[in-house]
Amino acid sequence: MFLCFSVGLWSCSSEDVTTNTGDWVKKSDLDGVARHSAVGFAIGNRGYLGLGADSDNRKLSDFWEYNPDNNTWTQKASFTGPARTGAVGFAIQDKGYVSTGLDANDERLNDLWEYNPAANTWARKADFEGSPRRHAVAFAIGNVGYVGTGYDGSYLKDFWAYHPATDAWSKITSIGGAKRLGAAAFVINGKGYVGTGNNNGLDQSDFWEYNPTTDEWTEKTNFDETTAARSYGVGFSIGGKGYFASGVNNLSVWAYDPSDETWSSASSFEGASRIYAVGWSLGQQGYVMTGSSGLARYDDIWAFVPDVAQE
């Protein structure tokens, strides 16, 4: 299938059509229960996933490690903070972090927890200094983690940096554009990229780059294709490109190339359409897993292999 994606003012012609690339490969299902609104991060060549809510919307505390070398899941130490949904996860060096979200009573949270995979232990760290919130977005660059946007009773656009060396938070410049929840992010070459999300029922299509050296956000090429705007999707980066996948009523996958600031269509996600999924990158593959659609909860995991042409 050929799709045309317009950038700027140029029109769609045969020369503008690009071949969808990439292939989706189903991997071993999560050994835990199917769930939505889980949290995840990748450390080295291992992926981690946990928390979320099951088919009865009971909040979960279990945590799992995925090994892509043998396509297996191993249960790890359960999360020791309050069970939650709508949290954020990020990894800094050899540690993983979980923050914000909704507890079992749907109260918003601002605590921060650190996972040490070597010791298989959890430790509480300095609370997130922004307001307690759900469905924020997070990413990490170097030795710093970044958390922002979300919903605390109002839509938000503030951003905060976490410094594990001092266990301290600092406020940074707010993202441009609309306030939002349910955005997605990825990191390429020391820059953070955030886009999509929802504000008052409207899915967003703007796209922003964060430069930690200058503490500045710069608006980049926005989505012009209607299938690209979404909320509650996932982001991941592989091979110098960033990808947005899943989201509300959405199977389309879009790839961003920072070298020429363009978007192109990648092969559509082959699992069921879903929201509240988890995504991360391991090696040269991106992963999308768990999530929900209506009353359905998912435990499947799919790997995206980017260098396969789809005619």
UniProtKB/TrEMBL annotation:
Q: Does the keyword Repeat apply?
A: yes
> Which InterPro entries does the record match to this protein?
Gal_Oxase/kelch_b-propeller (IPR011043), Kelch-typ_b-propeller (IPR015915)
Metal-binding among keywords: no
Q: Which SUPFAM superfamilies match?
A: Galactose oxidase, central domain, Kelch motif
Q: Which domain of life is it from?
A: Bacteria
Keyword set for this entry?
Answer: Kelch repeat, Repeat
Which protein is depicted? N-acetylneuraminic acid mutarotase
